[in-house]
Write a structure and sequence with these properties.
By secondary structure, the chain is mainly α. The chain is built from seven helices and no strands.
């Protein structure tokens, strides 16, 4: 995995995120539990390691996954929203636009892997 230099203490959380990012109810407490450390300490180590909060890190992974699915085409926006762990498609569209500057639909139009 591309996280070879990650603090071993929080590595279990990274694996957990990669498997469970589709779950919209993923909490810092769940991640801390995976590492057998307190939530406060987990958050501190995480921010030190990645320069961002666990919540933002998870959001980035969700957006990356959404981008892949949008490029492939074939799935409706609400299906992509569900598969990527957003609580609803409104939240998905808002987050996606904040991160990329484009709505999911615009992104899909610009990045479709093939044009008919």
């Amino acid at each position: 995995s591309s996280y070879s230099n990650v603090n071993k203490t929080i590595m279990p959380a990274i694996s957990f995120i990669e498997k469970n990012f589709p779950n919209p109810n993923l909490k810092n407490q769940d991640l801390a539990n995976e590492c057998n450390i307190s939530e406060v300490y987990f958050r501190k180590l995480f921010i030190k390691q990645f320069n961002t909060t666990p919540k933002q890190f998870i959001l980035d992974i969700r957006i990356q996954k959404a981008k892949q699915l949008l490029k492939e085409g074939g799935l409706k926006i609400n299906a992509i929203s569900d598969q990527c762990g957003f609580s609803n498609s409104y939240h998905f569209c808002r987050s996606f636009k904040e991160k990329t500057g484009l709505s999911p639909t615009e992104y899909m139009m610009q990045n479709k892997a093939y044009k008919i």
